[in-house]
Write a structure and sequence with these properties.
With 307 residues, this protein is α/β, with parallel strands linked by helices. It is built from 12 helices and 14 strands. Helix 3 packs across helix 4. The protein binds adenosine-5'-triphosphate. The site of adenosine-5'-triphosphate has 11 residues, from strand 2 and helix 1.
Length: 307
């Protein structure tokens, strides 16, 4: 059984009277990538600060690799790339990384290897003020993994980066996960993280709106997939089952009923070449946000479980 990297149990946090996290619970197994999602002010940064041990929950428990985060042991195992990282920009890239390496007791060889690996060797003796946003972000990423952390927290790692630079960052993330690291990526760029994630945690107003694999989110959210084929127009006339799913020239069917519908289309309708569009992470996210909004408008407070 895989070890639990991060365990959050019944965590609430209040800033003065204001709730930032509310009875949040989830467990992240080690070696997995979790996307941390939610609207502005949902509580993502508050959660990250707790995992880093920078903020104590008002109530509840946060453990990293089985230890309370306040213990110094857990902290050395965590790498962190903050949002909009900035460095003392009179230093060169080499000096910045060497400074962090000295703090963490990491060798010069590792600094040189990382500068090479992150495509910064050619600019290592240039001042950071002359680095592009992508170069600064790569330097920040290299800083975060200097000590080969078992858990890596990345806050908006690709915001403002061009597609190639973003692809580079996600390629690195994938490599680390393949090597056994656990990674939490906090992001609003749902399309970029979708193909990489093992698990997603969606927060709304400090509460857990959803947690699970993309497949689990699709099922729990009662999301619809869409099936299209030129013959559907005529088939709905003779097949009442299809009529119940039919709208705007296609079939809208709950993801959970996919297999039943596909079998029916093949065996009863001899349709083998339908076009199936499965909902994506963005659709799940928007559906969860819409559900939250409706419940709030009805004055119903959300339960701690997923909606
Ligand atoms: N130091 C603080 N003092 C008072 N309130 C705070 C503090 N930090 C966060 N909050 C409040 O807590 C709530 C959660 O904020 P948090 O920064 O965790 O959200 P977030 O999901 O990271 O948002 P964003 O996507 O905008 O970064 C918000 O209502 C915010 O205003």
């Amino acid at each position: 059984m895989s070890q639990i990297a991060v365990s959050v149990r019944q965590v609430s946090h209040f800033f003065d009277e204001r709730s930032a996290l509310n009875e949040l619970s989830f467990s992240l197994p080690s070696g997995q990538l979790m996307a941390l999602l939610g609207h502005n002010g949902a509580g993502k940064s508050t959660l990250i600060k707790m995992i880093l041990g920078l903020l104590r929950p008002t109530s509840g428990e946060v453990n990293v690799f089985g230890r309370a985060v306040t213990t110094s042991g857990a902290m050395t195992e965590i790498g962190y790339l903050p949002e909009n990282i900035s460095f003392y920009d009179k230093l060169t890239g080499h000096e910045v990384l060497s400074y962090f390496a000295a703090l963490k007791g990491i060798s010069k060889q590792t600094v040189n290897r990382l500068l090479e690996e992150f495509g910064l060797a050619y600019a290592q003796h240039k001042s950071v003020k002359d680095y592009s946003k992508g170069m600064k972000q790569r330097l920040g990423f290299a800083q975060a993994i200097l000590a080969r952390p078992r858990l890596l927290l990345l806050d908006e790692p690709t915001v403002g980066l061009d597609p190639q630079a973003s692809q580079f960052i996600y390629h690195k993330i994938k490599q680390l996960v393949t090597q056994g690291s656990t990674v939490i990526v906090c992001t609003h760029e749902l399309q970029l993280v979708e193909s990489q994630l093992d698990l997603a945690l969606i927060l709304g107003r400090g509460r857990r709106l959803a947690f699970g694999t993309l497949d689990e989110l699709l099922h729990s959210g009662n999301m619809n997939l869409r099936v299209e084929h030129p013959r559907l127009d005529s088939l709905v006339v003779t097949h009442p089952l299809l009529k119940s799913f039919y709208a705007d020239g296609g079939l809208n069917c709950p993801v959970s009923q996919r297999e039943v519908l596909m079998k029916y289309l093949i065996l009863e309708c001899q349709l083998y070449d339908v076009k199936v569009s499965t909902p994506d992470l963005a659709q799940v996210y928007h559906a969860k946000m819409a559900q939250m909004q409706v419940l709030n408008e009805l004055g119903l407070s959300l339960t701690p479980g997923d909606i």
